[in-house]
Design a protein that fits this description.
- There is one protein chain.
- Helices cover about 50% and strands about 15% of the residues.
- The protein is an alpha/beta fold and about 325 residues long.
- The chain has a single domain, classed as 3-Layer(aba) Sandwich (Rossmann fold).
């Protein structure tokens, strides 16, 4: 064997050792995150998928669906869950692959797939005519529920959503992590430490122009979002978002339930003028609320307004038109 071949073999061996060490370290970190943020709700198995959810309160049902790179803890950290539980039966669910819910590899997990699964979960939990609240990516899931399972939805609250296809650099960046073989390698080795390193900057971008809440470090389970399993779910949602918006945009006019759309002019994740503003003109029965001095996390910026609109939608009967504020 030549010196050159020997060097190559040594380099490959060292690389393999380094990747193996990263894989072990990431597995240990994932288990530590799960011990630090154990499941505090209940589990329900639907269609072979184990879902984690948290429920509280009594009254008209409200279902909270979190966005990408997140978990149901987002609703707790914002205080929305606790506020709603005073007057409603509120259910917050870890979407498939997020938090403590499973995401099997047997389907694409598009927003429509997730809506189908949630509709079955609603039936198992005896949830009917709920106000469904979706944030960011989950607005597509909420809309799919209203379109494909209309009996489950009484009203929609759509927070900082993405509704119409655009070019997304972030989708291209996460695409490798969503692929079967390369993605498995990346999410067990390089992706977790990279995701942890960029997390502070990502949070600043999400909350801008407001500061990141001081309590967020302790109240939101950020460490769960960088585990290898959730990184796959994050990446899959990232690459399915644009095609899903392209499919669903042709059906929005069929949504008959009332919808409250919330957006912030300062959103640095999604251009809300071309997204929420446009959706308001397409949905036949919607109101549009621009939250002042707000970015992507509008439910942190004005939780009282969000709760008030949820209450109005859950109480609404024959009268379906509510004036725009």
């Amino acid at each position: 064997m030549t010196d050159r071949h020997t060097t190559i073999v040594k380099s490959l061996g060292l690389t393999a050792l380094a990747l193996g060490g990263l894989a072990v370290a990431n597995t240990v970190a994932a288990r530590a995150a799960e011990r630090r943020y154990p499941p505090e709700g209940r589990f329900l198995t639907v269609d072979g998928v184990r879902l984690h959810y948290r429920e509280a309160g009594e009254g008209p049902p409200v279902v909270l669906l979190h966005g990408n790179v997140s978990a149901l803890g987002d609703w707790l950290a914002s205080g929305l869950f606790q506020r709603l539980a005073q007057t409603h039966r509120v259910i917050a669910c870890d979407r498939p692959g997020m938090g403590h819910s499973d995401r099997p590899r047997d389907r694409a997990w598009t927003p429509e797939d997730q809506a189908d699964l949630l509709a079955r979960a609603f039936a198992a939990l005896d949830i009917e005519n709920a106000v469904v609240v979706g944030h960011s990516y989950a607005t597509l899931v909420a809309l799919a529920l209203a379109l494909d399972h209309p009996r489950t939805v009484k009203g929609l609250v759509l927070l900082a959503g993405y509704y119409f296809p655009t070019k997304r650099v972030d989708a291209a960046l996460v695409a490798p992590v969503a692929t079967p073989v390369l993605g498995d390698l990346l999410r067990h080795t390089l992706s977790p430490p990279v995701s942890k390193a960029v997390m502070p900057a990502m949070l600043k971008t999400l909350f801008s122009p407001r500061p990141v809440p001081e309590h967020l470090t302790e109240s939101f389970p950020a460490a769960l979002t960088t585990r290898p399993g959730q990184l796959r779910a994050n990446a899959q949602d990232g690459v399915t978002m644009v095609p899903a918006a392209d499919r669903l945009q042709h059906r929005y006019a069929e949504v008959m339930v009332p919808a409250a759309i919330f957006a912030g002019h300062g959103d640095r994740i999604v251009g809300q003028e071309e997204q929420s503003g446009r959706l308001h003109h397409v949905l036949p029965n919607s109101t549009l609320h621009w939250v002042p001095d707000s970015g992507h996390m509008v439910h942190y910026a004005d939780p009282e307004l969000v709760v008030r609109r949820i209450g109005e939608l859950s109480a609404e009967k024959a009268k379906r038109q509510i004036a725009v504020r």
